[in-house]
Structure formats: structure tokens, C-alpha cells
């Protein structure tokens, strides 16, 4: 059963309440409903559990909120503009002043979850004694409490999250059974399983945010059924269309992204735990039990495949992210052009724009331009993921470790972009900011059009 204390703050990007403690996944997880499934993954301490916004830059955001917009910042945003909110500033600033943190830090809650499932299975199979299991669970509870309090940091000398947790159990807490926790598994199947859990969580987050963006586009499109504007071919006026038609087309593109995310979920929601180095184990383990405890549909059918193809789920997700970000980039470019004085169709909300330090009249569509930049970044990481899969001997290959960094970076760039775009659509595409402008742009001489049509 899910347990959590009352939220102490909300994510500054998507508004999701952030809990002060984390819940443990239930022993058996119903994965039948994808729309509800995103709630099954444990939140991430350093990132918003919904949109993935990093909290490592909280000190910067706190300063901005406390101090407001200084005279120098007013010059950046323009004296006539409403300044962007701190989370939008962080989104537009990228990693100029914010640190990303260690990759394995975001795997800690998933590795704890995995260790609990594996230990329970070992006890159930009489490979470990109940007393050993209780000792391990007690130690994992302590690590979880420290992590939630922000006091469990990874020691770089211990290489990865798995060794850090194991060493903390044995050396710091004095739990000898901590060594036995690693029975019948390898760090190979452990990291592949951790990454499946991490990616599954991100896929469900992306699906939820994408659905919300799609619904926002459909909702706003419905307000523009009569908002006449030109349709374009070759960047030139082609024939009469409506702004609602354009927005609905983007909604359809996002719908296909959700279908691709669902396909990823169906394809890779299987447990690699128990594959060990790729060559299985002679211990009488129960892979179906651990798969159930971790919310998978079942165990991977072949022990070698998920170890040898560690890059493939990452590349598959990277492909979906690349399509998503390319769609957002095209949407951003359209909104940028429609928001120029030359087009005069959109009034971009000032909270997603910046001014100039020297030209006070400027209203720059920074957030939309940043989305375009992030799209190029995400697409480049897909190339890296595909390259990692080449020229690998069947089995474990250390070079595929870099797939972890590439997909984490891609998700970190893409997830907030979906939330930002949904807010842009809501604040910049409503009839009150577009309708009169749209009608003003086009005058339709239906009589002349009828005459011209008759002459061929």
C-alpha cells in the first residue's frame, strides 16, 4: 500500500507535490493500466517524480524567488516584460550554473527496490535464512531513510551504486548478511534491471505529460474552429485553413508519440534480474517472483539477450524521445514565426520570453528556442546509443555502460520540454491572444475566388 506524508513543496516546473518520504512498491503490482502505472515507480529524490526537473539547482531558484527580479535581471528580461518564473529561467539557462549530479544517484531508490525483491526471493527459496533476510531489510530501510534525508551520498571510490549499498550494509552497519545479498546475481543483471526500472518510470512520466500536452492542444484547437489563417506550402500562402486545424495536427503527432511509448512499455517491461552475467546461475532462483515484485510482466525469456543488448532499450527510448523533441521543435518554430511582427498571429506569453540588455522593445521567444536546442541535443544522443550497439561480441561489454549516461541526459532534457510546451500552448494560443489577430491577417474575397475557379 502506498504511504506518504503530506507534501512539503511542489515541483516548480509542473506543480506536482513532492513528498517528504517515499513509499515502497507493493509486493504485487497491477501493470494493466498504463495511465495509472506511472504512480507505481518510486519518486526520485534529486528530480521531480513527474517532470524530471532537477532539484540540484534549488539554491539558485530559492535566490531568484526570495530576491525577485533585480535591476540587472530587469535589463535581461526587459522593463516592460513580466519576468519568467524561476523554473522557466532554469529551463532556459540549461546547465550554465546548475550541476547535474552523479548518474547512479538517481538509481538509488530503484536499487533498494531491487535488493528488497531479490532478498525476499532468496529467503523464499531457502538460499538465505529468514534472519539474514531481516538483517538485510533492516539495513536497506536505514539506507532508504538516509537517502530520503539527502544524507546517503555515493562514494566514488566504490565505483557504482550497487557496491556503495552493499558496502554500507557490511562495513558501516555491520550486517554480515549484506554480502550474501549478492548471491545468484551479478552487477551485470543488476544494472540492466535498475535501468529498466528507471526507464520504465520515465516512460510513464513522458506518456502522462504527452497526453496532457495532446489534450491541451485539442482543447485549444476547439476554441479556434473559426480562426481563419493561411495554410502554407513551401513557406508560402497556399489555401485557407484555421489555427485550430494546425493545433489539431500537432495533437495527432503527439498521440503517435504516446503510442510509441506504450510500445516501449510492452516490449521491455520484462525483468532481466536473474540473468546474472548473461549465462544464468545454478542456484534455484525464482525469477517469476522477482519479476512480480518489481512490477514486470515476467522474466526475460533468454538470459543472454538483455545483457548483450543492454543498449537496445535505451536506443529504442532515445528514438521515441528524438521524434518527440523533433515534433516539439517544429511546433516551437511555427509558434516563433507566428509570434513575429511580420506574421502577427500569436502573442507569446512574456513569462516564456526574455528581453534584451540593450534593446528594451525586444520580446525574445527564448523558451521555444531552447526547445529547439534541446531537440538537437536529444537527437545527437540517439546517434551515440546506436553507435554503442555496434561491433559487440555476444555477451557483456563494458562500453555499453555509456548507454546509461546518454539516455539519462536525453530524458533530463526532454521531459521538462513537454511540460513547458503545454504551458506555452495554454498561455499563448488562447482566443483572447490570437483570435482578433487571425481575422485581421486574412481578408477573403469569396466572389473573386469563385470566378477564378470557374476559369480554371
Tell me what you see in this structure.
By secondary structure, the protein is mostly helical. The chain has 2 domains: 105-182, Fumarase C, Chain B, domain 1 (Orthogonal Bundle); 187-453, Fumarase C, Chain A, domain 2. It has helices spanning 34-37, 58-67, 71-77, 86-93, 108-124, 130-148, 161-172, 177-180, 187-222, 243-268, 287-293, 305-308, 311-338, 366-388, 402-428, 431-441, 446-455, and strands at 9-10, 17-18, 228-233, 236-242. Helix 9 runs parallel beside helix 15 (402-428) and helix 14 (366-388) packs antiparallel against helix 15 (402-428). It is elongated. The relative contact order is 0.12.
Topology of this structure?
Blueprint: E1 9-10, E2 17-18, H1 34-37, H2 58-67, H3 71-77, H4 86-93, H5 108-124, H6 130-148, H7 161-172, H8 177-180, H9 187-222, E3 228-233, E4 236-242, H10 243-268, H11 287-293, H12 305-308, H13 311-338, H14 366-388, H15 402-428, H16 431-441, H17 446-455
Antiparallel strand pairs: 1-2, 3-4
Produce a short descriptive summary:
It is an enzyme of class 4 (lyase). This protein has two domains: 105-182, Fumarase/aspartase (N-terminal domain) (Fumarase C, Chain B, domain 1, Orthogonal Bundle); 187-453, Fumarase C, Chain A, domain 2, CATH 1.20.200.10.
Amino acid at each position: 500500500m502506498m504511504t506518504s506524508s503530506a507534501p512539503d513543496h511542489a515541483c516548480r516546473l509542473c506543480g506536482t507535490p513532492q513528498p517528504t518520504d517515499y513509499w515502497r512498491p507493493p509486493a504485487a503490482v497491477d501493470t494493466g493500466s498504463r495511465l495509472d502505472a506511472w504512480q507505481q515507480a518510486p519518486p526520485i529524490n534529486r528530480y521531480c517524480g513527474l517532470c524530471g526537473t532537477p532539484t540540484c539547482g534549488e539554491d539558485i531558484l530559492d535566490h531568484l524567488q526570495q530576491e525577485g527580479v533585480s535591476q540587472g535581471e530587469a535589463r535581461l528580461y526587459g522593463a516592460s516584460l513580466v519576468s519568467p518564473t524561476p523554473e522557466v529561467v532554469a529551463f532556459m539557462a540549461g546547465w550554465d550554473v546548475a550541476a547535474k549530479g552523479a548518474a547512479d544517484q538517481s538509481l538509488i531508490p530503484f536499487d533498494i527496490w531491487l535488493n528488497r525483491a531479490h532478498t525476499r526471493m532468496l529467503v523464499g527459496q531457502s538460499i538465505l535464512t529468514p534472519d539474514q533476510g531481516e538483517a538485510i531489510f533492516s539495513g536497506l530501510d536505514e539506507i532508504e531513510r538516509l537517502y530520503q534525508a539527502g544524507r546517503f551520498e555515493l562514494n566514488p571510490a566504490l565505483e557504482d551504486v550497487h557496491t556503495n549499498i552493499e558496502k554500507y550494509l557490511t562495513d558501516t552497519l555491520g550486517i554480515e548478511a549484506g554480502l550474501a545479498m549478492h548471491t545468484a546475481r551479478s552487477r551485470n543483471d543488476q544494472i540492466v534491471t535498475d535501468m529498466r526500472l528507471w526507464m520504465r518510470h520515465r516512460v510513464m512520466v513522458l506518456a502522462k505529460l504527452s497526453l496532457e500536452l495532446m489534450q491541451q492542444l485539442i482543447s485549444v484547437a476547439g476554441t479556434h474552429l473559426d480562426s481563419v489563417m493561411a495554410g502554407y506550402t513551401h513557406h508560402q500562402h497556399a489555401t485557407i485553413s484555421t489555427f485550430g486545424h494546425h493545433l489539431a495536427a500537432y495533437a495527432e503527432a503527439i498521440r503517435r508519440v504516446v503510442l510509441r511509448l506504450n510500445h516501449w512499455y510492452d516490449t521491455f517491461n520484462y525483468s532481466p534480474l536473474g540473468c546474472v552475467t548473461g549465462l544464468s546461475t545454478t542456484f534455484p532462483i525464482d525469477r517469476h517472483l522477482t519479476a512480480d515484485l518489481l512490477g514486470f510482466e515476467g522474466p526475460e525469456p533468454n538470459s543472454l539477450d538483455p545483457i548483450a543488448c543492454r543498449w537496445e532499450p535505451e536506443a529504442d527510448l532515445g528514438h521515441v524521445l528524438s521524434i518527440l523533441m523533433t515534433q516539439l521543435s517544429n511546433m516551437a518554430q511555427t509558434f516563433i514565426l507566428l509570434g513575429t511582427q511580420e506574421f502577427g498571429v500569436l502573442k507569446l506569453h512574456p513569462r516564456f520570453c526574455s528581453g534584451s540588455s540593450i534593446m528594451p522593445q525586444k520580446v525574445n521567444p527564448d523558451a521555444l528556442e531552447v526547445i529547439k536546442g534541446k531537440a538537437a541535443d536529444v537527437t545527437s544522443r540517439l546517434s551515440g546509443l546506436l553507435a554503442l550497439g555496434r561491433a559487440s561480441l555476444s555477451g557483456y561489454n563494458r562500453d555499453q555502460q555509456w548507454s546509461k549516461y546518454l539516455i539519462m541526459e536525453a530524458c533530463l532534457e526532454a521531459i521538462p520540454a513537454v511540460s513547458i510546451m503545454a504551458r506555452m500552448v495554454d498561455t499563448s494560443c488562447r482566443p483572447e491572444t490570437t483570435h482578433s489577430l487571425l481575422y485581421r491577417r486574412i481578408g477573403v474575397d469569396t466572389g473573386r475566388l469563385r470566378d477564378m475557379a470557374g476559369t480554371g
